[in-house]
Design goal:
Layout: H1 3-15, H2 18-25, H3 29-43, E1 48-50, E2 55-57, H4 59-85, E3 91-97, H5 102-116, E4 120-126, H6 129-137, E5 143-147, E6 155-162, E7 165-169, E8 190-193, H7 199-211, E9 216-220, H8 224-232, E10 237-241, H9 246-250, E11 255-258, H10 262-265, E12 268-274, H11 281-293
């Protein structure tokens, strides 16, 4: 099995189609099909199940994809060790994060890290909780930041910090002085909410279902920035972990009231990596920096 064949096959599994892999690798789809066919002939196993739209790996294909991913990571480690031997501190660290983490990630995380390690670059992709977990498990990201993710056998949390979901209000809102608010207290107020497939919205939906009430959705958007602007404009309230509104709260434009519903009060922020993976030096340095410097993880 050649390195090229394994690289092509792994790209097909990640993209879910030969055409998608061809676009990602900037090669002809026919070249990828030929390499996959040669792998199947060499191994004597079907590696892909052809679907009406795209492909999915067979059990043998999943095993081969895991092997190809380990080889890819070992190659990255080799390059990293050789760079350190030459005295370099370079590399590109790939992050996949929830949008609410961006203020702290940029201001307290990447800003200081970039000054301390000018040779190390970062690539930041935004994702839903499911997207972050998938990117880490499939080797498409080195580090993940997720809010209240479900357990995943392929991942481990390097840091976990309890971060209750909060009601976000203007300082002069009539409910801004509540001492121990619950989600039901805001059920009659226009709200900016995440889409139904978003982890925060799913948390809210569980509390709504248990309590027999519904929030009054007036704006639906995955953008926490747009939700904050909705609240600042006096159009209603929103719900997000307090760290997602940390700048506006610090500057007095918004108030974050932690919600006391048990499910929402116990929500947490997670700093994630793939379990058992040896990170390149650049990614390891950034991981420890974020664990130490990001306010969301600092007690």
């Amino acid at each position: 099995m050649t390195h090229r064949a394994l690289r092509y096959f792994l790209a097909v599994v990640r993209a879910g189609s030969i055409r998608g892999a061809a676009e990602a690798l900037h090669v002809a789809a026919s070249a990828i099909s030929r390499q996959v066919a040669e792998l199947e002939a060499e191994l004597g196993e079907a590696l892909l199940e052809r679907l009406p739209r795209g492909v999915t790996p067979t059990e043998a294909g999943r095993i081969l994809a895991e092997h190809a991913q380990r080889q890819e990571e070992e190659a990255q480690l080799l390059e990293d060790r050789l760079a350190r031997l030459r005295g370099g501190q370079e590399g590109l660290v790939r992050l996949c994060v929830g949008a609410g983490f961006l203020p702290g990630l940029v201001d307290q995380g990447l800003a200081g890290f970039s000054r301390a390690h000018p040779g190390i670059g970062t690539s930041v992709a935004l994702g839903t909780t499911d997207g972050i977990l998938t990117a880490l498990a499939e080797g498409e990201a080195d580090i993940g930041l997720a809010y209240n993710p479900p357990a995943h056998a392929a991942l481990e949390a390097v840091a976990i910090a309890r971060q209750p979901l909060a009601a976000i209000l203007p300082p002069d809102h009539p409910l801004a002085g509540l001492a121990a608010p619950r989600l039901r207290d805001f059920s009659q107020i226009p709200a900016a909410l995440n889409p139904p497939d978003h982890g925060v919205r799913q948390l809210l939906a569980r509390v709504e279902a248990d309590g027999g009430f519904r929030l009054a959705a007036r704006l639906e958007t995955a953008s926490f920035e747009l939700q904050r602007r909705f609240v600042i404009a006096g159009l209603g309230v929103s719900f997000m972990p307090g760290f997602a509104a940390i700048t506006d709260v610090a500057e007095g434009r918004l108030v974050a009231l932690p919600l006391h519903d048990p499910l929402l009060a116990e929500a947490s922020a997670h700093l994630l990596v793939r379990a058992g993976r040896r990170l390149p030096e650049a990614a390891s340095r950034l991981l420890q920096w974020l664990r130490r410097e990001m306010p969301v993880f600092v007690a």
